[in-house]
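Researcher: Please translate sequence to structure tokens.
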Amino acid sequence: MLIPIIVIPVANNIFKHSNKGQKRNKMKIRLVPWFLLSLLLTSCSINNGDIKQITISKIETMPNMPQPYKMLDWHKMSVNFDRVVFNFNAKGKYSPFIWLDNARRNIDQETFGIYTAIGDIRQGTDHHNGEYHEALTSLGALMSAGLVGINKKDQNGYNYVKMVQNYFNTDNDWNIILNTTNPEVVGRGFEHDWWYEVFLNVSYYAVSDLFPDVDGSDRILKSIAKKFYQADSVLNGDYDYSWFNYATMKGMRNDIPYEQDAAAGHAYVLYEAYKKFGDTRYLNGAKSAIKALLNQKESRFYEVLMPFGAYVAARLNAEQGTNYDITKIINWTFDGVTASDGRTGWGVIAGRWGNYDISGLVGSATAGGGYGFLMNTFVLAWPMVSMVRYDPRYARAIGKWMLNAANAARLFYPYEIPDSNQWLPEKKAITRHVIAYEGLRKTDAYYHKERLKGVSPVALGDGPRWAKGEPDVSMFSIYGSAYVGIFGSIIKKTNVKEILQLNCLATDFYKDVAYPTYLYFNPYDKMKTIEYTPKSGTVDLYDMISGKVIAREIKGKGQFSIAGNSARVTVEIPSGTKIIRSHGKVTANGIVISYY
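Model: Translation complete:
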């Protein structure tokens, strides 16, 4: 859905009221596509200042004020996770959670492995020569650390960012990041599930932006971009495959539903590659992949990739003047899959289980009445929050979703949900307060544990129980918990309970130079005043949604107001800076602060 604009010859107001994604010349109104006039009459929107907010139907079913409410210190959780998991000297049963791997696959260097789940009997130095460990866990842990300011290039004598390059599979000619250093070992890396193979390269691009100038990194990034560009060219708009062989360049099918939203992952990597290397092939490839994604007739959301398409589409609209339908992709993500030949029911969950609002979790809305996953919920915030700075029409919707998701996500952690609502409360001490259950179910409809009969919700694991002697402890998911830094870098509490400061730059990788940008959603029905502390110096706050400076000369601490049930997207600029509107951009000191 495109932004509704009033296309009438009021030239002085065009700059103020138009939105990003459509480059407009204030006098050449004839350049505006004719069909925007019809959209003006049909758009479903909430009036929130000068830029009308687009509603997302699933998010509208979520409460403004989820209850019971508790917001964790996600930054602290992220820092503590790194401290616990990267401790080679940890003592106690199932510790340490990390080991060294000297098989020297793909690259002649020592690397490391982290257990997928606590006590995972498939892993460690005594199994498969220590070679079986998952990039899904390692890359998530490195990204989380980087997002909260931990230097993984030099931590206790290890350059983990260099060590993780062993997942770059050259020995088998794939020449991209795969889930294991050796796909022949027993484990998921051998099963060829397309989302793994795409998402891990999405993650490697993120890690490489957080930790630049690592020897060998650019070579790997270029190889990934080349492979993804070739793959999109071969697919030529037809992504109806379960996985893709990047060595033979052939689409493959198996008993897994087709994962057409791999196109979103291709688009993400290719656009990031374009921003890093400036090669227009990758820009064209990103556009091609987004077109393939939007040509789907219905949602083909599988695991994590679909929302990255919304981010890329918004960024292309803003930076390249394209006109992609972002709302369609967001609705596909939140409403989920209805196709019988797809991953039916997969999307974003809304509702109340027992005494808890659980809206905002990502997973299956149908399996056992509902089944949310922690990793997937963390990951959805990555593209969604940063997307808002390229298209603030979605600010209220994403702000409301994040409030719900961040509140509900705490329920995966064994110390944040009552013992009566979790599978293994007697063992929660081994989680060190930083490792969560993998899943949250509406009911214990899978294992049928007598103690949990009639209980809702239930925190537990997924699938096999992998720990020797005490198989249930593998329900505690290190890989899912590893992505906590996404929340840790984005979410910060404000002086008003239930109003969060969401950092729009944190996961906006390979971005142009930008001023601090934050999304705020006010769930109350009346105006609230937010205290604001600048990064440094004396600043003004520009609001993308109203197109106005809403606070001036803030030094030390200032404040601004937000109307009830609405949002702001503020940009911190040096006090007194002249704001210029030209060629589809709003700039301050030559730095873009908004698109319109």
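Researcher: Any highlights?
Model: Confidence is low (pLDDT under 50) at residues 1-49.
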